[in-house]
Amino acid sequence: MERLTIDTQPIEGQKPGTSGLRKKTKVFMQPHYLENFVQSIWEGIGGVEGKTLVLGGDGRYFSDRAAQVILRMAAASGAAKVIVGQGALLSTPAASNLIRKQGTDGGIILSASHNPGGPDEDFGVKFNNPNGGPAPEEVTNRIFEATKTIRKYHILEAQDLDLAAPGSHDLGGMTVEVVDPVADYAELMEELFDFDAIRAMISGGFRLCFDAMHAVTGPYAKEILERRLGAAEGSVMNAVPQPDFAGGHPDPNPVWAKELMEVMHGADAPDFGAASDGDGDRNMIMGPGMYVAPSDSLAVLAANAEAAPAYKGGIKGVARSMPTSRAVDIVAERQGLDSFETPTGWKFFGNLLDDGRVRLCGEESAGTGSDHVREKDGLWAVLLWLNILAKSGKGVVELMQDHWRTYGRNFYSRHDFEGIETERANALMDDLRVKLADLPGTTVSGRAVEAADEFSYTDPVDGSVATAQGIRIYLDGGARIVLRLSGTGTTGATLRVYLEDRSEDPATFDTDVQDALKDVSAAAHEIAGIEHHTGRTEPDVRA
Ligand code: G6P
Ligand code: ZN
């Protein structure tokens, strides 16, 4: 096997975003594109020589090719070992678990999460640190710097390895260990949760439906929900991972998880419904006829986590991303938990989890997780819900209504305006920034503005500062508007407008969420000049 050194040139735009480098698959398939980025990862982590890495992903189109290239490049740069999920598959939380469990020097995850896959869709590469979490900005900055100066990369000239079956291979002196992607993860879940209680609930007639959306969680959900917990065969639908997710958009929300919505709104709806995204870190929770907003889910999990053996001793603190509703803050306040508000992006939870300041965290973007790994974890959230239901004997709808009666309800919705020209989106944010100081004391769409600022975050553990993390506008009555631009898109800009209003009056709890947020939405449009800047009056997605 020959070690080749290939001359290359820096390629523009290889800056990792909220969650690694995400581009159109065809961009990744251009000559040297993947190779430049991978060599820059080695550079950014101080070299890969002698190191052990984990490698896997959501199985999207081009993953199989990319995995072979990464293995050859790791071998050519002297890595000691790479642990690969069979078929190059590993859900993001399972990869995080493997990195931690095997004590590796990190790992590479091939995924564009909830974005569609295929030759005309999206691909992504992300490096995770030895703690199992997404590389912090300091590392991604070094990787980005390396992409700007790269002149050569190293790769082994070798045949493809057979990743289809578990086993050990030698690749130019580097060990490649192909492992069952599900086993270690399933074992971890059994340690965290009361499987006996869940099994008893299911055998007592509790029915569930899990939509894997043709993505990576299929094999995990089949093993855990059907085989280990006894859910009826077929409870997991769309369970075979496909490179293009069967043409779907593997994003578990009411818009894209249409099949699950139909089942859960149907006449014979099961007791519990859930879905996960492309790489298995997001979750969506439903009861019969009811969609549970991710921010509410986080609050319910925080309030009831002690039902699960892993959290019996308490969760100490909770963290949420800034745009996530403040429902969980109320739980924290009442239960004497510490609470933290971080910028969007799971990586910002890493230090808080590592430092033991919080055990539970979550985001409005359908991510919830805990200190068991350093990624958000879709199936974990499903199992914690099931554990709570099993212990409480309540259904999803009842649990949710009890929660609102106890803590009040934070009506919440995110409105996305997609595919806006980047310049126009930036202009909207710039104009807003200028206006911020003058907003408090004014009344907009009948609501008084109490405060407004641009969020910046100082990490309490390492003191690092993240600025310009979104605009917060606080209105009377506990309402809030947040505006920010998405950091995960691959084309143009997406404006995200997060709307929240609060009520403690049970008579209002059944109000339609969009109706409840009408005036807050009107205020957002007026303050930000959304139509003026984007030409849009209606969002593309109401999540
Ligand atoms: C990914 C990240 C999350 C983040 C989400 C939305 O899933 O892992 O942490 O909340 O993207 O990010 P965006 O920048 O598109 O709002
Ligand atoms: Zn994801």
Automatic annotation (TrEMBL):
Keywords: Isomerase, Magnesium, Metal-binding, Phosphoprotein. PROSITE patterns: PGM_PMM. Its cofactor is Mg(2+). GO terms for molecular function: magnesium ion binding; phosphoglucomutase activity. Residues 1-20 are annotated as: Disordered. InterPro entries: A-D-PHexomutase_a/b/a-I, A-D-PHexomutase_a/b/a-I/II/III, A-D-PHexomutase_a/b/a-II, A-D-PHexomutase_a/b/a-III, A-D-PHexomutase_C_sf, A-D-PHexomutase_CS, Alpha-D-phosphohexomutase_SF, PGM. Pfam families: PGM1_C_vert_fung, PGM_PMM_I, PGM_PMM_II, PGM_PMM_III. Its EC number is 5.4.2.2. Residues 14-153, 184-286, 295-407 form the Alpha-D-phosphohexomutase alpha/beta/alpha domain. It is an enzyme of class 5 (isomerase). It catalyses: alpha-D-glucose 1-phosphate = alpha-D-glucose 6-phosphate. The keyword Transcription does not apply. GO terms for biological process: carbohydrate metabolic process. Belongs to the phosphohexose mutase family. This is phosphoglucomutase (alpha-D-glucose-1,6-bisphosphate-dependent). It comes from Palleronia abyssalis.
